[in-house]
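ugh finaly. both done.
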Amino acid sequence: MNYNQATKFILSWAKLGRKEYLKDLRQCEVYLKRLQFFLDLIGNPEKQIPHYIHVTGTSGKGSVCLMLDSILRTSKKFVGTMTSPEIGPTQTRWQVNGQAMNNAEFAKILTELKPKLDTYLTISPYDPISHFELMTAIGLYWFAKKKIKWAILEVGCGGRYDSANVIPHKDIAVITNIGLDHTEILGKTKAKIAYEKSGIIKPGCKVFTMERDKKLLKIFEKEIKKYKKNTKQILKTLTTTSYKLQVTNLKGTIFKYQNNTYKLNTLGQHQVNNAILAIEVAKSLKISTSKIKLGLSKVKLPLRMEIISKKPLIILDGAHNPDKMETTVDAILSLPLVGGGEEGVIEKRIIPLFPPRNLSRVYLGKGRERKVFHQLHLLIAFSADKNITQMLKQLATLKPTSIAITKFQSPFKQAANPKDVEKLTKKYFKNTKIKTFNNPFTAFNWSKKDTIKSDILLITGSLYLAGEIQQKLTN
């Protein structure tokens, strides 16, 4: 099987009929049972990996995984990391020591696993494993072949019955926070969602969270009590008030936490919260502060407020639910007044972030002249199952000059119809130029055409959209 054949096989497997994730709450355990049956057929790779860190939450879980990956690799640990969804070819969701699975490895693994999948269909008492369950099996199989020592796994959805929860043990369970996303699957309330996500807690693991809602923390503690009486010894709740932001600009963020200074090469103050989670997890693993600092300074967070151009400022962002969009909007509104923010000074905003075109500079006295951003343009696409209305309301606070509405092309996720999104958009953007497109890159070119060097073009609403634009620009 070559690479193209392997890719086609993955797509064909996804079309097989099966019980889909959490469609019947009375039969949820079947998801893990059917995946375990397949893992048994391929030699139980999940049992060959000594250490696991498992990360769930509504927002930030991918960033925390990548931060921990960088820290652990800096401390010379042999690490495999699995995130989702992929932001390019299928095999980009897995990496070992910072390197994604290549095409040849992907084809070889699918060639080895296909006979086992055929056997599964013949002898399994269950329906076919899902596409996501197969992705998990491939990742674990590759990690075992590579003989990694640490696996960092991001939950796809929920936690309790998510395929990554098939692992037999874990050192660390991280629950970043709880918000209202995937409500059609996980439940309509934060309490129900917290219950599903708390399911990643297993015997003997340490639990870290940034969630501060006491009612939700009690749900975590109840789960912990199944395995240990003294919850205080195993649950570490972190707050976001114990750090000092020192510098934030287009080059990154510098903050002070517990008398140590850390640097992130990423935009957005919300990433500091994710970094603190990663810091505390790393400290629990006895990793030195110097290694933690170095690891965080090296981390790259693709499609998380990723700057791909400075003149104009073009940002690729995968925010796809109201919690994530809130941090995206805050990050844009918190940009330094300086066009590019190269000085790295945090200043009190004294004029609107996006002034009229005839106001291109602000004078701060003593000959200091600083350029400001002019106007904001949006390129957006959403998944059909998301809270699009709420995200549009959040984006409306940015008062964009133009909005290009499009759709992504993923075979695994249904995109919202651009015309339907346009109808909603016109309710909240009264004096904005709006145009719809079926092709993301055509939409990108339209937005960029009206974007001058001192403007901002924000591409957001979906990791799939941002990933498609990134792939087109890099190919």
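ok and the 2nd:
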Amino acid sequence: MSVNPHLVKESFTHVEPFADNMTAYFYGRLFAEDPKLRALFPAAMDTQRDRIFHALTRIVWSLDSPGTLDAYLSQLGRDHRKFGVCPEHFPVLGRALIATLRKFSAGSWTAEIEEAWEQAYETAAQIMINGATEDPGPAWWIGEVVEHERRSHDIAVFTVRPGTRYPFTAGQHVPIQVSQWPRVWRPYSVANAPQPDGVLRFHVRAVPAGWVSGALVRETRIGDTLLLGPPSGSMMLDPESDRDLLMVAGGTGLAPLKSLIEQVARSERQHDVHLVFGARTERELYDLPDLRRLERMFHWLRVTAVVAQDSRFDGMHGKVPDVLDRFDGWADHDVYISGPPAMIDHTARALQGLGVAPARIHHDSSGRHL
């Protein structure tokens, strides 16, 4: 069945301004048609509403990029297994979506547009179903917290041991659910490369109104169990590249970059790595002692710490994106950036201005690095 991307995109522009009302109406229609589906979602729906509209927007604007769209939808299908989504749920989801689009299209809706959306939805749903059914792994893993250390009032570093082997690649992130908040999943990057004992380390900052992050930092204890969803993310080292590496971390965005450094240490390819680690104050450079240990251990690793607001810090001052021009050229490096979305965007623009090709700048904004 062919999809008409132009018609879908054009009609979507009419409803985009009504995102909040649309998502509320969509879930109302969905739960009215099949009340049993309400049990698949968290009690508070605010974040869920934002996520579904974000996903819908990404799907719509990727319709004419089938390779990118297929990869995203397949991962989305695998991810949704942890919520209990099954193939039989997709028809009712589709009906609720079409009804919502029809209502908010303000008179511009036509039979041709409806057919285009139905075709697009059926195609997307089938890709998601295929992605879910072709994944041989479990929908989630149970992990035990074996170490937990508070590094500051709002940052914790902790280690989880899954009950069975958890396959992932350095640089990826993992959805976590805590017992305090059933059906609420939040992604956190793994801070180590895969290792024989199978443990996963995480760096988490408790954000304001962050249910899961607050529980992980302030309430989690050794011996507690967590649910781990399937890993995702594409910020992985290029196995074919011999270029040296620049890694730029903001706050707990350090986690996936630390996992990549571990991978470099185990690799047969030799790269020089320069890690720029930034925070607002010296106190927030929560992992600097261990980074200095690694720097002493590996001759190819250089660590530069940067603070933005602490005049007492005996080191480099400024915001991370603004200090990169103080070093000699990055144009021949592969670059990996991790941290808050605004910091990632600012850093990527600064590096492009310094001659780094966009194709060599890697980041993954879907992990939670705050």
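summary for the 2nd one i guess: The CA atoms of residues 334 and 360 lie 5 Å apart.
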